[in-house]
Amino acid sequence: MKPIKKITCIGAGYVGGPTMAVIAQKNPNIQVTVVDLNRARIAAWNDHDLNNLPVYEPGLDAVVNEARGRNLFFSTEVEKAIDEADMIFISVNTPTKTYGKGKGQAADLKFIELCARQIAAVAKEDKIVVEKSTLPVRTAEALKSILDNTGNGVNFQILSNPEFLAEGTAVTDLHNPDRVLIGGEDEQAIEALVQVYEAWVPRERILTTNLWSSELSKLVANAFLAQRVSSINAISELCEVTGANVDEVARAIGQDSRIGPKFLKASVGFGGSCFQKDILNLVYIARTYNLHAVADYWEQVIIMNDHQKTRFAEKIIQTMYNTVNGKHIAFLGWAFKKDTNDTRESAAIYVADHLLDEEAHVVVYDPKVSAEQIYKDLDYLGTRSPEDNRRLIKVVDNPYEALDAAHAVAVLTEWDEFKGYDWAKIKEGMKRPSFVFDGRKLLDRKELNRLGFAYYAIGE
Ligand code: NAD
Ligand code: UDX
C-alpha cells in the first residue's frame, strides 16, 4: 500500500481538532484537513487569535500554530475533503440516544451513518475509513455495509482506532500515549495507519487487534476508569460516617501495585462527555444480548455517580439548616474537570439544578466557561423555564464578585487557581457562618478552619 499523503477528519470537536493537530504536527508530509458542518467552529479553529480556538487545552495553541496553514487545514468543504483523502477519520459525536429504541442508553449513530453515506456518495477512489469516534461493538459491520452498497466499485477498508486522550491533558496524552489501538482486518490498511502514528509513537505501544476487540476495548477502558471513581466515591460516604479519611484510604490502597494510585480521587462525581455515555452504551449492548447480570453490574457505576452528586447537594442544604431558599451560594468551577472549557455532564450542572429547585441563589465563576454555556446547560435539563434559570443563577467573570456576601462556597471543579485565592479576604466578605463545601478536596482544611470557615469536604 502506498504511504498516506492526505488525511481528512470529519468532526472538528474535542477529539478531531487536537488529534489531527498532533498528527499534522508529527507528519509534516501528510496534508491533514479537518472538516465540520458547524461553520462557527471551523471559523474559530481558523481564528488568528489562538485564544479563540473552540477547544481549550493546555499546549494546543502551540501545536496548532506550528501546523496550521502548513499541512493542517480546517474547512467546511466536507465533500471536497472526502474526495481528496486517502484516509478518512470519522470523529463525529456519538451521544446517548434521546428518542426511540434504546433512548437514554444506546449510542445515537445518526451522525456516523450520515458520514458513511456522504463518503459513499462522494468517493471515486479506494479509501481507508477510520473510526475515531467511540462506537458500539460491531459498528464497523454497519459502516461497511453502507459503504459497500454504493455500487460505484470503490474499495473501502475499515479500521477502528479509538481515542484515549483525556480532556485537560489532551496534548500530552497525544504526544505520549500509553498505547495506540488499531483494529482491523486488512494488514495493509492497518500498516498504513501504523505508519502515521510511528512518526512519534514507539512501535511497541501501537497495538493491533481485530475490529471487535478494538471497538469494545474503548468502552471497557472508560467503564473501568469510571468504576474506580465510583468505587472510591462509594467509600467516601462510608468515610464520612466512620471517621476515616478517603484520601488516606486511597493512598493506603493505591500503594498496592495491583491496585495502583490513579483514578482514586474522591469527588462530587465524574462528568464529561464519555464516561456516562459509554457505560450506558455498554449496559445497553449487554442487555441486547440478554446479559442482564453484566448490564446490572455496570449500571451500578452510574447509579453510584448520580447518588454522589445528589448527596453533595443534599449535604449543602442540610448543613445550611435545611434551607437554602434565597441564600447566596458561590460556585467555584463549572467545567467537568480542570483545564478544559467542556461542561458536558459536569456534576456542577446537577448540583446547581438541585439547589435551584430549593430556590437558592447561585453565583458561578469558572475561568474558562462562558455564561452562555452555563445557561445552555441548565436550559437543556428542562427543569424550569429559561427565565427562572436566569433569575436564580448569575454568572460572573471575577471570583471575588461571586464570593462577596455569599452564605456558602461550593467547589465544583479543581482549577488550580482556586487554591491561591486570598481566603482571608474572602472570609471577611462572606456571611457568617461561612460555609465551604469542597467537592474536589482541593482547599486546605487546616488553613480554612483557622480563618474561621465551616469547612466540609467529600469523604472526611
Ligand atoms: P464534539 O461534539 O466535540 O465534536 C463532534 C463534531 O462533529 C461537532 O463539531 C459536529 O458539528 C461534527 N459533526 C457531526 N456530524 C457531522 C457530519 N455529518 N459532518 C461533519 N461534521 C459533523 O465531540 P467529541 O468530544 O470530539 O467526540 C467525538 C467522538 O470521540 C465521540 O464518539 C466521543 O465519544 C469520542 N471521544 C471523545 C473524547 C473526549 O474526551 N471528548 C475522548 C475519546 C473519545
Ligand atoms: C475520559 C478518559 O480518561 C479518556 O481516556 C477517554 O478517552 C475519554 O474519557 P475525560 O472524561 O476527558 O477522559 O477526563 P477524565 O480525566 O477521565 O475525568 C473524567 C471525570 O472523572 C471528571 O469529571 C473527573 O473530575 C472525574 N475523576 C477522575 C474523579 O472524580 N476522580 C478521579 O480520580 C479521576
From TrEMBL:
The active site is at C274. InterPro entries: 6-PGluconate_DH-like_C_sf (IPR008927), NAD(P)-bd_dom_sf (IPR036291), UDP-Glc/GDP-Man (IPR017476), UDP-Glc/GDP-Man_DH_C (IPR014027), UDP-Glc/GDP-Man_DH_C_sf (IPR036220), UDP-Glc/GDP-Man_DH_dimer (IPR014026), UDP-Glc/GDP-Man_DH_N (IPR001732), UDPglc_DH_euk (IPR028356). SMART domains: UDPG_MGDP_dh_C. NAD(+) binds at residues 11-16, 36, 41, 92-96, 133-134, 167, 274-277, 344. Keywords: NAD, Oxidoreductase. One of its GO terms (molecular function) is NAD binding. Substrate binds at residues 163-167, 218-222, 258, 265-271, 336-337, 440. It catalyses: UDP-alpha-D-glucose + 2 NAD(+) + H2O = UDP-alpha-D-glucuronate + 2 NADH + 3 H(+). It comes from the Bacteria. It holds the Pfam family UDPG_MGDP_dh_N. Residues 330-445 form the UDP-glucose/GDP-mannose dehydrogenase C-terminal domain. One of its GO terms (biological process) is UDP-glucuronate biosynthetic process. Pathway: Nucleotide-sugar biosynthesis; UDP-alpha-D-glucuronate biosynthesis; UDP-alpha-D-glucuronate from UDP-alpha-D-glucose: step 1/1. Its EC number is 1.1.1.22. Catalyzes the conversion of UDP-glucose into UDP-glucuronate, one of the precursors of teichuronic acid. Belongs to the UDP-glucose/GDP-mannose dehydrogenase family. PANTHER family: UDP-GLUCOSE 6-DEHYDROGENASE (PTHR11374:SF3), UDP-GLUCOSE DEHYDROGENASE/UDP-MANNAC DEHYDROGENASE (PTHR11374). This is UDP-glucose 6-dehydrogenase. It comes from Sphingobacterium gobiense.
